[in-house]
Amino acid sequence: MNTSITWRLALAGAICSVVLPATAQADWPSQPVRVFVGFPAGSSPDVLARIVTEALSERLGQPVVIENRPGAGGVIGIQQMLVSAGDGHTFGTTINGPMTTAQRMMDDTGFNVAEDIAPVTLLATSPLVLAVASASGIEDLESFIAAAGAEVDALTYGSVGQGSGAHLTAELFAAEAGVSMLHIPFTSYAEVTTSIIGGEINAGFMAPSAAMSFVEAGTMNVLGITSSEPFGQAPDVPLIAGNAGLSDDFRAELWNGFIAPAGTDEAIIARLSAEITEILSDPEVQERMLGMGWQVAPGTADDMADRIAADTEMWGAVIDRIEAQ
Amino acid sequence: MNTWDSLLLGLSFALQPHVLVYCILGVLLGSFVGVLPGIGAMAAISLLLPLTFYMSPEAALIMLAGVYYGAQYGGAVASILLRLPGTPQSAVTTLDGYPMTQQGRGGIALFTAMVSSFSGSLIGIVVLVMLAGWLSGLATRFGAADYAMMMIFGLVAASTIGASRPAKGFAMITLGVLLGCIGTDVNSGAQRFTFGHAELLDGLNLVALAMGLFGVAEVIANIRNPERQSIAARIPLRSLLPTRDDLRRLPLPILRGGTLGSFFGALPGTGSTLSAFLAYATERRLARQPERFGKGAVEGVAGPEAGNNAASITAFTPTLTLGIPGDPIMALMLGALIIHGVQPGPMMLEARPEMFWGLVASFGIGNLLLILINLPLIGIWIAMLRIPFNYLYPAIIVFLCLGVYSVRGLAFDIVLVAGIGLAGYLMTLAKLSPALLLLGFVLGPLIETNLRRALLIARGDPMVFLERPISAGFVLASMVLLLVPLWKIWRRKRAAADF
């Protein structure tokens, strides 16, 4: 019974995919488009999504509605997108975690990235900066590595949780620099910041936008940035790559991307990808995103798929190392 | 710039017509959504956020802040008249507010809540203006060890609130702490009691828990008990006005609650929850007849209401001067500012004094408006109780489900609220205090996380709790609270033995 239904569905799908693409794209979008965001209204993934969907709705001639389904580091939003999938008008945005590391950190995410998700395009990337309290007297990467290397776990660092970008970035950095630091998990960058300034912990990788105002106030020093090129919002911060004995290709970035449920018409994905790329080329959009600490990163669906594959491998190796300890 | 100039700058800013309009809009909306059970400031601010993209950052902040503290006024209405607290701090208000309603003194309870909220906010504003610099540094002086011991002190101090017997109180706190364990453990990343449900990874939904334990449980209890359904119809009009005796009891609890609240509000985290519970515990300990509490004591409404409103004012200091939001709603407001390219942080007071002081001035204006609007409305709110229960209760349940659903948009949470409601009803039968369960639920995970974090940072040395002065102070205070009653019992026994 089951097989016969599956067969019929498959047959119907095959017929549709032969007959419909041309009309599907011509009519699309024929109804409001929904975009699931796995973070609450006002969070930075939400605001990035809103900047894009605002322009998208003008270009598509249909309302583009954001549905916030926060929880489990963005995983709930993707689950909810997949539940509502199938009408060709349901999409989502995601941060890197659910696409690259969540499968390793959670018992069951309820989806498989390779089978269930169709990448559309990256939206923006954000590097992290390594910050210490200015009271520590540490002013550059070399003296930081020297202090951290004095003995095992000589320094502590804060992150926004086990397996978070800030945690994995710090472990990647420590492995490359040949040091070992003690990880102290927090729940938000705000807590990490307070703890660094209060002198409770020594360091942390954090968003440039959050750290720079403390640098200006003279309470924090930032020692390096994890991007491969100087970053617009913090142009004076030196790259970690190629500095203090670290390799030239050191790069660790958070990213935000636009996704579709697997099975979405490829012509629709290509159209969306092209529209978003044009939106991201608008200097005003770029400036708004940069103000929040995000650098636009337009590209094709394939570029995003490559990024997912590369990051899954890179962070997977870091997680292997943490688990082996 | 001295304090006086700062205030004048703030006033001249906040009194500009377009800013004033947004302030009025914010407080009106806030007190309206606050009354609707479960639909609190969080939902309202999330909905308004996209609109603020088109406003100036100052106006946006002032409007959203108005919703935030306005909702506290409205929240008191639902807590006192219907036993529907949307937050742990308003759960404290139900402890004596709802019994007052049952005695036909609901109008007096509302009056007390409004006046205390207003006075508490004023105390918060005065403290904020006098000590802005000191308050903003407070958060960085508190480390993990200090937070852990402060919250343990809070639990110890509040442990007997609303419980018929101390053992029952401790049992409820423990149950709350256990429920708080559900979700992802911050320190290890392990998933506890989630049974494979991603919906539970971030823990139980607090709004669902509060609504189920109080609201749903109360509705079930009233359906079973026809006598309680008719109380509302007997309220005489004169009960809207407080007696001279009621008024005489208000000033000191308000002053104490407001002071406590101003201090704890400036600590990011659970400032306003802790201050409401501590204000209540303080009043009960100082009262000549502590047995009146839980049965409709006005001090039990005045202290906590003054406390949580003062806390909601000073809570803006860490948000704006450190960029550290104390709760999810503050995080939303921070988000709204960042969207406008304003980065709250240590430079805020210097870089945008008009915004900071304008906000402070708007607190004063907003609270004045709130009390002027809300006092005349008391009669109307009381009239709501005259709605026949077969219309009122289904409406309550619908609003409550809407409110719970609005937090995350998951049907899972509605099923959760139904289950919790049933458990809550069984708890009422056994005379177990849901307020203490909520306190344990909120503080438990924070105590655990901070305790383990402190030990991790100290490389496992427990002396860290005695070496840090703030932490040591709270340890000492907790010991005193625990030992004094034991010592009293011991002395009584010895006196009895001497005969």
From TrEMBL, chain A:
- Keyword Ubl conjugation assigned: no
Leader sequence range is 1-26
Q: Which UniProt keywords apply?
A: Signal
| InterPro entries assigned | BUG (IPR005064), Bug_dom1 (IPR042100)
Q: Which source organism does the UniProt entry give?
A: Roseinatronobacter bogoriensis subsp. barguzinensis
PANTHER family, A to Z: BLR1237 PROTEIN, TRICARBOXYLATE-BINDING PROTEIN
The family this protein is said to belong to: Belongs to the UPF0065 (bug) family.
Entry-linked Pfam families: TctC (PF03401)
Q: What is this protein called?
A: Tripartite tricarboxylate transporter substrate binding protein
UniProtKB/TrEMBL annotation, chain B:
UniProt cross-references to InterPro entries, sorted A to Z: DUF112_TM
Occurrences of domain DUF112 (ranges): 20-439
The UniProt keyword set, sorted, is: Membrane, Transmembrane, Transmembrane helix
Q: Where are the transmembrane segments?
A: 19-49, 61-82, 108-135, 147-164, 260-282, 356-383, 389-407, 414-443, 470-490
One Pfam family it belongs to: TctA
Check the UniProt entry and state the signal peptide residues, or none. Answer: none
Q: What is this protein called?
A: DUF112 domain-containing protein
Protein species of origin? Roseinatronobacter bogoriensis subsp. barguzinensis
